[in-house]
Structure to design on (781 residues):
């Protein structure tokens, strides 16, 4: 997906339109990844390539347009560590943290190589530290196991030497290989017949004019001389003499030496993560600093044909200097989320809201300050303490009350106001550009028992009357409500359990809450009359008094029938109790599958972390092993998406939310946000006044599903030709029916006009007046 530079002089970029548009076909994926920093940079004659941990950003040097490359486009994984463009073969080499390699060809094809992760003669984690271009067809890979030479044209390893010491860097000079290691510099003639035999390599020591003991991190060849750091001081070697030319700045490590055209770039990184320095050696022999305005923690640098200096940097923002002597740094900004953090997702009226925080598994603070993000009409907006004082808490003179660790978000069903809960310090209401902050001083929220400075908001849910119910973790009165009339009230359920988090409301108006107490699994609470504490009811479900297999309950959700689905560390339990939730007979049930002749409880080996309900009442279940899609009754597994069989970014699923208007499923993973266009939308009890068919007309080059949207829930749908002959019949998935453009025999139908007739499903229509819908489809074969 490509977009163009809007303000050329400032190099200000706008990212792709990632909104919930209908051009995302059913069954397709799209990523929503952060483009806030590019730790590594490389270049081709036409493009600049920046890497983030999850994807690649491509900038066209001439057009100033941008493109993106990630798992949806064919990359094999996330966790990108190094990029290197090999100009002779026009291949972009992508190195991952696990040492897997993708070769991205000029025609868009991608080849994945897993030989290094699968090395059996090297035990332990494999890590590639540097990629060096040594010929028109080969590259050298410096790694913690040694050195590999790889032929790009043949996609094969020529040789590998296991050094027994990590190789930090590699270069070729005067027909020799040079390795930088913590034991010093090693060399070997390129003509050697046994480069894989490390005993054939020579260590440069006192006989060669080098110290007796030293280590080296970086080497580079410039003006036909070898430059290397020895214990962080910079030396030059002409083949006979070694001379020191610079001493490392105080508290700095020399991290890399990069020959770039007329310059040798010298990169220093500060110990402790502070700002680094970059200097350059020019052909006149002088070493000069590059402007500090563009330097954070630089990891790689490129200088293009126009003399612009592009910085790969661990600090936020993409950076570029117009020339190596310029003092003005241009910052490149992209439309994207703030980070990969995504503890909870809420969707309302095509708006996606993200709580970009988190807590540890044992409910302790992580001090994540990424705040809240929204995706509206394709544009991301970020709200956190870096750009909004409300998120700094009441006292701007201290960070002690800043709003860290946002873990829950909900949208008012009637007015669209957004409520975001911080586990560290209260609740924020977002109403357009108006922000209101609630804590223990201006609401019924209380501070945590045992941590009296913290107002922990751990769960949010609206009931059918548009009252906002709040889990107030470990407060003395841990359940609060903010009514539709703006009244605050709290409750102290008789269950006496304060360790509560996720909350939802069932069809009877009962509040169900998951607990992180080792002695409690689920709580159900009914406040009765708001003003009469005597009629409050509370019940605890545990592994002893219910079918819960464990007290470790991670999530719960009410489905379209009002039943409560509870995700535990050992599968799913369903409470189908209706208004009898407080009766002893309500114990929950588990679906039983027969797998290979054995009866097993529903997903009982899975650690369930989130459950979402789509328009067809199907369950989208997020676990530590990907996403399971279950039928409405949970008796059938419809799909299982993992990072191996789909573009899913990571198998550890944090949260799932579904856009009921178009069926787009947003999946939060450990490596960021991705979405998938499903075939179900939310249907009302009667048909919409606006039944849509897309695509329509169906053109000859379209082979995907045809969607009929705006139907009554689970409607019966018949498709006939223009003469009335029945071609196809189906039941809507919620409010949407799918037709593949074939008849009952599976053959593609002929060119013509086809009629869609839809009627209510009596099971879901209730006492409403029967409704129907008619639509036309123009089909061109």
């Amino acid at each position: 997906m490509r977009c163009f530079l809007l303000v050329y002089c400032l190099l200000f970029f706008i990212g792709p339109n990632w909104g919930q548009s209908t051009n995302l076909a059913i069954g397709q994926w799209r990523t929503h990844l952060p483009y806030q920093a590019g730790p590594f940079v490389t270049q081709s004659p036409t493009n600049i390539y920046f890497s983030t941990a999850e994807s690649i950003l491509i900038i066209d040097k001439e057009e100033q347009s941008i493109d993106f490359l990630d798992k949806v486009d064919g990359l094999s994984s996330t966790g990108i560590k190094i990029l290197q463009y090999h100009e002779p073969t026009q291949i972009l080499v992508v190195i991952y943290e696990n040492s897997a390699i993708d070769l991205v060809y000029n025609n868009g094809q991608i080849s994945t190589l897993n030989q290094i992760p699968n090395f059996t003669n090297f035990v332990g984690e494999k890590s590639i530290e540097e990629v060096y271009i040594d010929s028109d067809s080969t590259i050298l890979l410096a790694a913690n196991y040694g050195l590999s030479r790889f032929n790009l044209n043949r996609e094969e390893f020529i040789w590998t030497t296991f050094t027994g010491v990590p190789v930090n860097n590699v270069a070729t000079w005067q027909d020799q290989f040079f390795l930088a290691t913590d034991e010093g510099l090693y060399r070997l003639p390129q003509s050697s017949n046994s480069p894989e035999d490390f005993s054939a390599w020579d260590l440069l020591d006192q006989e060669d004019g080098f110290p007796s003991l030293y280590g080296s991190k970086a080497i580079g060849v410039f003006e036909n001389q070898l430059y290397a750091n020895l214990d962080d001081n910079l030396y030059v070697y002409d083949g006979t003499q070694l001379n020191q030319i610079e001493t490392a700045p105080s508290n700095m490590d020399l991290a890399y030496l990069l020959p770039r055209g007329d310059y040798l770039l010298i990169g220093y990184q500060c110990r402790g993560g502070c700002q680094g320095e970059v200097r350059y050696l020019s052909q006149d022999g002088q070493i000069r600093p590059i402007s500090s305005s563009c330097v954070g923690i630089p990891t790689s640098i490129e200088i293009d044909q126009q003399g612009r200096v592009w910085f790969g940097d661990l600090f936020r923002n993409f950076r570029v200097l117009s020339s190596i002597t310029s003092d003005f740094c241009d910052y490149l900004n992209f439309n994207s989320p703030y980070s990969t953090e995504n503890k909870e997702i809420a969707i309302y009226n095509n708006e996606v809201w993200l709580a970009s925080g988190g807590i540890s598994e044992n409910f302790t603070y992580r001090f994540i300050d990424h705040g809240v993000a929204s995706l509206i009409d394709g544009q991301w907006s970020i709200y956190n303490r870096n750009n909004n004082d409300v998120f700094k808490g009441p006292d701007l003179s201290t960070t002690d009350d800043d709003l860290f660790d946002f873990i829950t978000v909900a949208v008012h069903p009637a007015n669209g106001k957004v409520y975001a809960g911080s586990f560290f310090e209260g609740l924020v209401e977002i109403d357009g550009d108006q922000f209101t902050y609630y804590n223990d001083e201006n609401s019924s929220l209380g501070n945590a028992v045992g941590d009296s400075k913290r107002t922990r908001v751990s769960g949010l849910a609206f009931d059918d009357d548009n009252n906002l119910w709040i889990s107030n973790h470990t407060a003395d009165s841990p359940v609060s409500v903010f009514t539709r009339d703006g009244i605050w009230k709290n409750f102290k359920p008789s269950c006496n359990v304060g360790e509560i988090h996720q909350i939802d409301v069932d069809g009877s108006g009962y509040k169900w809450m998951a607990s992180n107490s080792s002695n409690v699994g689920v709580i159900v609470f009914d406040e009765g009359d708001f003003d009469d504490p005597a009629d409050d009811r509370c019940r605890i479900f545990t592994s002893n008094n219910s079918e819960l297999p464990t007290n470790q309950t991670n999530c719960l959700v009410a489905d379209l029938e009002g039943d409560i689905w509870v995700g535990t560390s050992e599968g799913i339990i369903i409470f189908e109790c209706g208004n009898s939730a407080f009766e002893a007979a309500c114990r929950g049930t588990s679906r039983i599958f027969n797998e290979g002749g054995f009866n097993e409880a529903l997903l009982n080996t899975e650690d369930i972390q989130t459950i979402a309900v789509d328009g067809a009442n199907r369950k989208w279940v997020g676990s530590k092993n990907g996403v399971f899609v279950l039928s409405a009754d949970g008796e059938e597994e419809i799909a299982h998406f993992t990072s191996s069989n789909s573009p899913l970014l990571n198998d550890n699923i944090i949260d799932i939310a579904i856009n009921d208007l178009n069926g787009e499923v947003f999946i939060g993973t450990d490596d960021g946000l991705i979405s998938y266009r499903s075939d179900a939308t939310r249907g009302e009890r009667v048909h919409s006044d606006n039944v849509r068919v897309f695509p329509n007309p169906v053109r000859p080059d379209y082979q995907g599903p045809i969607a009929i949207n705006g139907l009554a829930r689970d409607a019966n749908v018949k498709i006939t030709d223009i003469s009335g002959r029945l071609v196809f019949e189906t039941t809507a998935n919620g409010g949407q029916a799918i037709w593949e453009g074939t008849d009952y025999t599976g053959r593609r139908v002929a060119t013509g006009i086809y009629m869609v007739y839809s009627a209510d499903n009596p099971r879901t229509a209730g006492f409403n007046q029967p409704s129907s819908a008619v639509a036309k489809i123009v089909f061109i074969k």
